[in-house]
Amino acid sequence: MKRLFAGAALLAAFTLAGCAPHAAVKPDSTITLSLDEAGKQVADADEQKVLDALKMIEAGKIQLAIDGPLTEVVSKYETMYAGKPGKVFCARGLVDALAYAGMGAKAVNGKADVPVQVIGPAWAQAYWARGYAYSEMARYADARAELEKALALSPMDSQYKSELAFTYQRSGNWEKMLALYREAEGDAGISGATPEDAARLKCVALRGQGYALVELHRLDEATGAYQGCLKLVPGEPKSLAELGYIQGLRAKAH
Question: Which one of 14, 23, 72, 166 has the minimum C-beta count within 10 Å?
Answer without folding.
Answer: 72
